[in-house]
Amino acid sequence: MLAFENILQRIESEISQLQFTNPPKSLYEPIEYILSLGGKRIRPALTLMACNIYNNSIENAIKPALGLEVFHNFTLLHDDLMDEADKRRNKPTVHKVWNANTAILSGDAMLIAAYQLIGSTEHGHLKQVLDLFTQTAAEICGGQQFDMEFESRMDVSEEEYIEMIRLKTAVLLACSLKTGALLGGASQEDAGNLYAFGINIGLAFQLQDDLLDVYGDTATFGKNIGGDILCNKKTFLLINALRLANKEQAEALRSWMDKKEFDPAQKIQAFTSIYNELQLKQLTENKIQAYYDASVENLKALQVAPEKLTILKEVCDHLMHRQS
């Protein structure tokens, strides 16, 4: 089995060799910029790790893995534009370095580049991998639409929110794992269990992101703390705050959410104080643990030697205890 560090090194090496040589250069500079910002590279890493569980060689999974990473960064580029985010990985976002129109068009070019890379999948697995990716891409768009619609709703349920983050975040992790498994020669049953593992770990991952947006550190998180609060984004914490708040707390939350002009630090502090009063940090951590426990059961169902799953388990354990 390849070490996680070796897999990451291979991914970074392959990304650095990606060439966008078609004119005009200005269309592709933002793509090179966002890919150069780094990141966890967890999606391509999951693809290669899943492949490696079933096959000593990961070569046939390299290009599809790169395609999934390019696609992921495309979603971030458009996400940042829609959220009007200033920072991504502690660097200015694409629409801040260039402009909104450039971010839209370069993002479109990234989506095409992702399809080109995934289209390089070996013929025997091409249809299944491409179908899975296309379904995933459509689901992610649906998740983003739900996310935007939730911003103007005050009655979003926890169940609706979980479905939204399943679509927006978890399905791509699941797709990455299943793609790697299929290319490694896994059975359909094992590929399905790895997909379910990806869903559960993805839900835990996004809930951890919600938590870090409130309780993280800007220096390590790579994004401004409280960004979701400032945008009135319906996160797991806000949805449960609105559900559990007493009359006074509910009025305070709604008052802040209705304000068009406010001091950002004061709004973040006000929300955080109410979250603390309602013990939402613990509630969120309990939910994260539940999805993590479910993901462990998915791995136990795999028809492989337990030692082959050691690296995958270690990486996911690290994700669940991250600060960035």
TrEMBL record:
GO terms for biological process: isoprenoid biosynthetic process. Keywords: Magnesium, Metal-binding, Transferase. Signal peptide: none annotated. This is Farnesyl diphosphate synthase. CDD domains: Trans_IPPS_HT. The keyword Metal-binding applies. Its cofactor is Mg(2+). It comes from Parabacteroides distasonis. Belongs to the FPP/GGPP synthase family. The keyword Protein transport does not apply. Its EC number is 2.5.1.10. GO terms for molecular function: (2E,6E)-farnesyl diphosphate synthase activity; metal ion binding.
